[in-house]
Specification:
The protein is built from 34 helices and 23 strands. It is of the alpha+beta class.
């Protein structure tokens, strides 16, 4: 609610103030970010240095008071035979169990891939049998067709998520699928090569499915190893037995053993690379799991921050004001350029038919003399906290606490028909509450309560220290009803009585006899006796008695200097442990729910991707994804080295005399080692030079460099395979005749030519190595796999044509016309595997992009937390001083806890505009007083903008009371006084110690200049009346749930009297202030002794201005408006 009006404001001054306001908001946000406690929870607590460097889980957690959950990765006690890096588990055990469930659910989608692999395998069998079909292949076709149907059914069940829901049934699915695949391979071996078995039969497919099991089955590593060993062992045993039965003598036995060991090398290679793939997937999902946990932590933090902000706002501001104010702040921050406007935004609303209650503690001075300053603040804190609870019970909105005065209002913001009755019930309850204090403290304290009903303007004025307040003539009447009341009684006006419906017995109040204002206005007043017999309060209940009357809590309390005090005993270790377990159970339950919600989200559907390349349509998002560092690329290059080692071992077993094998192995391993070291240097930075680490990091973060490095690795591996194949020539042939016909036999030392299929299996291993390249896209993988298949297929069909034809002739003899030639069969096998791996590469990239989007979501949520904290900081520091806000921000305080701080050397200022009351009218021409308050809002906002200047950084605005502005100096740590300085007070000069008081005096002068400028622009004649004093005070916050920062002490009282007894247009100070400020160049005139209530006669002075030396050293007098002459 901020209508604009045509005031003659200077746009240049307005622009400067808006710019200062934005700078202040930015400063608060930056300071907040420096104070945010972000603890890096390192999850790689492994004692081995290398492993510690390789573990890449380091997750940031937003830590709030009372909630810091640590996640640790420790070595698992089981599977000690496995490498250390793959034996990492979370602690506590409940978190590890939760992760394992999450891991298995994520890999459940991979069952689709394995089912598709099995379907491709059976389709391959059917097609190969159909190309050259004979009746003896019927059994093989039928078995393959049945298997294909089963694969399709299982794929459909997985795709449509129709698998059994029970944990036992769902857990059995991976084993069923493994059994189906194993039976498929054994049937293919037994039926397809029924009469012509060889040691290479279906070995490539067995190795392919061994590796695929590690990629896809949602099982732990140990079951996977056992299943792989079982299937490979059965395959080797069955193959060895049926091949050995064909031998007529034992001469071929050693060769069979070497062939079977060569097969085992392929199985070991597939298993070892599979273990690494499992390890990499486990690392990836552990990272995603921790990010999900972090996301939950962020969400909880966000919820707590939102709740905290709302509670803090609503404790000071009504909801409709708070919502509009927060929205206005955000809108202003979102604007690229601050728009010019003639008035500061004002949040003000009119409310009709409300009741205003003022309550003052009578005898507060006597009470304060019976206890220390800290005990006094503690007493006020508890008493006003009880008043706040009573206000909540009686539907009151607390407006302000003015020293020992408490005032609230009923019927705002929501209208209540019984507003008058509620306010009277509130007054009676407060009188009862103070009687309890009187009994406990043995002092003559009481409550004087005044209630008046009418209309008010409610809202917030100014730009700093926001506090909700109400303005109207009726508020003034309510205040006078309190001052003209009687201790221990509730004093009400005629309008309040008219709003009642006979709920209370009343007697004549004669308020005019005690208050001149009431007499002048002719206001009839009444005193409330007691509720009538049987009368109920506004809630249908009699007034509640003060509970726990035997408690000593109001008096027997302790307070600390600048810290919270709590009488509550610390819990035992057993209770802490139980609390920790319950909290861990709750967070795990929330995490489980969060993970399920995340998995159900179609996050890729919300971000458009290219269906072919799978790239994000959003270029910035794709660039961000491409620049993501892939920390597991080093493991992928290690897989290339492992593959090269095992295929060389296989070749040595097949043909140990082929020298080219050793040469290509050494060259290939050296080249791959260089590529691997360059890739892994960033993971182990302490082991390599900074230049190499920098180069490695650049490779990980640069897409084309990653692609080049991956292509180089596969190119090296492929060239090694091709070189080994081309080095093997056709064998020598001997033709012999027998009773069964002509027989061809090979002789010589080139055993590689007798086992050409094993060399095609090397291409299968190369495809596996390509599938492990996690740092490249699926299109690059497809290109690399096409390279492998093309090169191997070219060698099979062209270079090794004679070798394969001769091998078919020797193995199958006359039956070779009924089968697909091996050169085509091996090439088609590699092509089918390439299709399967490409399908898996697309599936893997979709998962990677999904995890990336989840990670981006976590980052966005963290940004929301930071933004919320920034707004929280801005709001809190607009209600509490920044150093005090640190005590409350991010913590949960009880009403019994408080902040208090004693100061010895503080400056206090009260500045009022006495003639504003003459300006304020509630006529229709100024919108019922609203436009008058708009001018007051401009005045207070201009005063607030002065505080953004660097020279006034030691000054703290305390509050505004109507048209009175209260500020203090020396309260902030930057003032280097009152114990904030590293130097002792006696070591500081007087000029240093009281610099903040001089700044406060300069601020008072600047306020006069500012008001004079505003008078010229708005054609008004407002004048300030200012009082200054210095001395010791007690600063504190009353009420942690409804925090109200204030200062108390004799210094404050004297400063207030200096303002109230002063003269408009002048700044009045006592003699002690005069003695200090004159040393800073301030000019004074002596006013003389004046009578001050409660202090007697005090010698006072008027501050006229300040002499600022010019460049020539000659004093220059500062001209100030509205100065009076020397007053005797």
């Amino acid at each position: 609610m901020a209508p604009r009006r045509g005031c003659k404001k200077c746009f240049l001054r307005k622009q400067q103030r808006d710019k200062q306001h934005c700078t202040c908001m930015k400063k608060h946000g930056n300071k907040l970010l420096r104070r945010i406690d972000l603890t890096i929870m390192s999850v790689n607590r492994v004692h081995n240095t290398d492993t510690e460097q390789s573990v890449d889980y380091s997750v940031e957690y937003s830590v709030q008071e009372g909630r810091a959950r640590e996640v640790t990765v420790l070595q698992s006690s089981c599977c000690s035979c496995l490498p250390r890096a793959v034996r990492l588990t979370f602690t506590p055990d409940s978190l590890e169990r939760l992760y394992q469930n999450y891991f298995r659910r994520q890999r459940q989608d991979n069952l689709l891939v394995l089912a598709m692999f099995a379907a491709l395998f059976n389709s391959f069998i059917i097609i190969m049998c159909a190309v050259v079909y004979t009746e003896d292949k019927l059994a093989m076709v039928v078995v393959a067709a049945v298997g294909l149907a089963a694969d399709i059914v299982l794929y459909a069940l997985c795709w449509f998520q129709k698998l059994p829901a029970s944990p036992v049934s769902r857990g059995a699915v991976p084993y069923i699928l493994w059994l189906m695949v194993t039976v498929h391979v054994l049937c293919y071996m037994g039926l397809n090569y029924e009469r012509f078995h060889h040691a290479s039969d279906s070995v490539g497919w067995q190795a392919f499915f061994n590796f695929s099991s590690f990629l896809t089955l949602p099982l732990n590593l140990v079951p996977l190893l056992l299943l792989t060993a079982l299937s490979s062992g059965i395959h080797t045993l069955v193959l060895g037995v049926i091949v050995a039965q064909r031998f007529e003598d034992n001469l071929q036995g050693p060769m069979l053993v070497r062939q079977l060991f060569a097969n085992i090398m392929l199985y070991l290679c597939a298993a070892m690379v599979g273990v690494m793939s499992y390890y990499m997937a486990d690392r990836k999902y552990r990272t995603a799991f921790l990010e999900a946990r972090q996301s939950l932590e962020v969400k909880l933090t966000l919820e707590e921050q939102s709740t905290q902000q709302e509670e803090l706002l609503l404790s000071i501001l009504p909801k409709h004001i708070a919502d509009e104010m927060l929205e206005g702040m955000k809108n202003q921050a979102d604007q690229q350029e601050v728009q010019q406007q003639q008035f500061n935004t004002m949040y003000m609303y009119r409310h009709e038919n409300v009741s205003i209650l003022f309550a003052d503690i009578v005898g507060f001075t006597q009470l304060s003399s019976t206890c220390s300053a800290q005990e006094l603040v503690k007493l006020l804190n508890e008493l006003f906290a009880r008043f706040d609870k009573l206000a909540s019970d009686h539907h009151q909105l607390r407006i302000k606490i003015l020293g020992d005065c408490y005032y609230c209002i009923c019927g705002l913001p929501d209208f209540r028909e019984d507003h008058a009755a509620c306010s009277i019930m509130m007054g009676l309850a407060m009188v009862e509450a103070i009687s309890y204090v009187r009994d406990k403290t043995k002092t003559d304290v009481d409550m004087r309560v005044g209630v008046h009903s009418g209309k008010v303007l409610g809202g917030v004025l100014g730009q700093k220290r926001w506090q909700f307040d109400v303005w109207s003539t009726d508020v003034t009447v309510a205040n006078k009803m309190e001052s003209g009341g009687i201790p221990g009684r509730v004093h009400i006006s005629q309008s309040t009585m008219d709003s009642l419906h006979g709920e209370f017995e009343l007697e004549t109040g004669n308020g005019g006899e005690r208050c001149e204002y009431l007499l002048e206005k002719g206001i009839e007043t009444y005193l409330v006796l007691v509720p009538k017999q049987g009368a109920s309060g506004p809630n249908g209940k009699a007034p509640s008695r003060l509970s726990n009357r035997n408690s000593n809590q109001l008096i027997n309390t302790t307070a600390t200097n600048g810290n919270a005090a709590s009488p509550q005993a610390t819990p035992t270790e057993c209770k802490q442990e139980r609390t920790k377990m319950v909290e861990e159970k709750v967070i795990n339950s929330r995490l489980q729910q969060e993970l399920l919600e995340r998995e159900s989200q179609q996050i890729l559907m919300d971000h458009q991707i290219n269906p072919v390349s799978l790239r994000f349509v959003d270029g910035k998002l794709e660039e961000q994804y491409s620049s993501e560092k892939e920390k597991r690329s080093g493991a992928a290059f290690c897989c290339c080295m492992i593959v090269l080692f095992f295929i060389t071992a296989m070749q040595v077993l097949i043909d140990p005399q082929l020298a080219v094998n050793y040469v290509t192995f050494v060259i290939g391993e050296v080249l791959l080692l260089i590529l691997t070291v360059c890739s892994m240097a960033a993971i182990f930075p302490k082991m390599f030079s900074k230049r190499l680490v920098s180069f490695s990091t650049w490779i990980d973060r640069t897409r084309w460099a990653r692609n080049t490095w991956a292509m180089a690795a596969i190119f090296v591996l492929t060239m090694v395979v091709i070189a080994d194949m081309l080095s093997c020539g056709p064998p020598a042939i001997r033709v012999s005749n027998s009773t069964s016909g002509t027989i061809l036999e090979s002789f010589g030392d080139q055993s590689c030519a007798e086992n050409p299929k094993h060399y095609s299996f090397m291409a299968v291993m190369s495809l596996i190595a390509t599938a492990m390249l996690v740092q490249v896209s699926q299109l690059i993988k497809l290109g690399l796999m096409v390279l492998v298949v093309t090169a191997t297929g070219a060698v099979n069909i062209y270079s090794w044509r004679d070798i394969y034809d001769l091998n078919d002739y020797i193995q199958f003899a006359s039956y070779r016309s009924s089968i697909v030639p091996s050169k085509y069969l091996m090439t088609m096998m590699i092509i089918v595997m390439m299709i399967g791996f490409y399908f898996f590469a697309r599936h893997l990239e979709r998962q990677s992009r999904k995890l990336f989007l989840w990670k981006v979501g976590v980052h966005d949520q963290k940004e929301k937390v930071f933004e919320m904290r920034r707004w929280n900081e801005a709001l809190v520091t607009n209600m509490l001083p920044e150093h005090v806000a640190q005590h409350f921000l991010g913590s949960k305080k009880r009403d019994e806890e408080l902040y208090s701080q004693s100061y010895d050397e503080i400056g206090v200022m009260f500045a009022s505009i006495p003639n504003f009351s003459d300006f304020y009218t509630e006529e229709s021409i100024n919108n019922g007083g609203l436009e008058c308050l708009r001018i007051l809002n401009e005045i207070i906002s201009d005063f607030d903008s002065l505080l953004d200047r660097d020279e006034f950084r030691f000054i703290t605005k305390i509050k505004t009371i109507g048209s009175t502005y209260m500020a203090a100096s020396g309260l902030t740590p930057e003032s280097n006084t009152n114990g904030y300085s590293n130097r002792k007070p006696e070591d500081q000069s007087r000029i240093e110690r009281w610099q903040h008081l001089a700044d406060l005096a300069d601020f008072a002068l600047a306020m006069k200049v500012t008001l004079n400028n505003l008078n010229k622009q708005s054609f008004n004649n407002f004048m300030l009346r200012i009082g200054l004093n210095k001395g010791g005070v007690l600063a504190g916050v009353i009420g942690a749930r409804k925090p109200h920062y204030d200062i108390w002490g004799n210094t404050v009282n004297v400063a207030s009297r200096m303002e109230s007894t002063g003269v408009m247009g002048n700044i009045q100070v006592v003699e002690t202030c005069y003695d200090i400020l004159k040393e800073y160049g301030f000019r004074f005139v002596r006013r003389g002794p004046i009578f001050v209530k409660g202090k007697g006669e005090l010698l006072t002075f008027f501050m006229k201005g300040k002499d600022n030396p010019n460049s020539n050293g000659v004093p220059v007098t500062t001209a100030l408006p509205h100065q009076v002459g020397d007053v005797s």
